[in-house]
Amino acid sequence: MIKIIILLFLFTSCRSSDELDWVLSLPKPWTLSNDQVTKLLPEFHRRFPEFHDRLKAVNIWRIGTPYGIFKLGEEVEPDSDPILRIDTSDCTVHVLTSLAFSTSTSWSETREKMIDIHYKPDFSGKKLPTYRSRWHYTSDRITNNPYTTDITKSVIRKDDLDSVIIVLNKKTDGSEFLDLNWTAKNTIHFIPTRNVNEIILSRLPNICGVAFVRKSYFKNGIAIAHEGVLIDNMELIHASSEQQKTVKVNLLDYINNNGSPRFDGIMFYRFYSQG
What is the pTM of this model? Predict the structure, then answer.
């Protein structure tokens, strides 16, 4: 029985290595046309039939993508940028488009998935890509979007958490940060950076989302300053404005920043393939 278990482990490990080699051998995604992406996506599903394995593979594939901020829109004014793109990315664009690509088998299907992921339903339950219906605030999306679930409180003792009640999109002077005709009270639980360690990370799933809290943003009705994807309980894949591309780094090294923490805290969230 022990021999069988060992053989199964070795087979799985070799297969995982082979599949990762395949991902690393692919053309860089930002160099591909929409049609070329369409040809590749079914192969991701064949090689990685489990959703979270596929999401990890897509994230690894996209390392190196050139950085560009605020590059998604509704293809009409006031934001005429495309609904979907793969040639450039900022932190949120990386997270959402990677999720969309991982759950689709063609460019057109991915575009429809992006609308489902990136926009809130109207009063009739229909999701239309408009500037005001977009999930603009990461903390709102993490706690209320059906494609994600906040798991922060599940990995640490309550006494080690911090929290804030914030009115999203409302500045301290009462005005809106973004012209949305919308505000929302949001209770956010986060782990102070000083409490994030390898024990906490070991309690997380093999792939999950990570969002970084910056208290100085609270005055503008914003809680999250940055986000990315955590793989293998340690490695952060994120679109870096500093390095001007999507990179993979050690999460603890990144947040601690040689003794000068970049952020005040962290939220973790789980991904789902269907909303």
Answer: 0.92
CA distance readout (Å), 204 to 128, 130, 225: 33, 34, 21
DSSP codes of every residue in 143-198: HH-TTEEE-GGGGS-GGG-EEEEEEETB-TTS-BSSSSS--EEEEEEEEEGGG--H
Asked whether 251 and 209 are in contact (CB, 8 A), the reply is: no
Domains of the chain: which residue ranges? 2-271
Helix (H, G, I), strand (E, B) or coil at 76: strand
Q: How far apart are CA 61 and CA 28, in angstroms?
A: 7
Identity of the residue numbered 154: S
Amino acid at 149: T
CA 99, 117, 119 angle in degrees (round to 5)? 150
With contact defined as beta carbons under 8 Å apart, do 232 and 251 qualify? no
Series of mean pLDDT values for 10-residue runs along the chain (275 residues) = 49 64 97 98 98 98 98 96 98 98 98 98 95 98 97 96 97 97 96 97 98 98 98 98 98 96 98 91
112 vs 101: CA distance, rounded Å = 11
Q: Using the CB atoms, write b or e for 123-152: b if 16+ within 10 Å.
A: eeeebebebebbbbbbbbbbbebebbbbbb
List beta partners, residue 210. 228, 268
Residues 6+ apart with CB under 8 A from 254: 236, 262
Record: fold of 2-271: putative xylanase like fold (2.30.260)
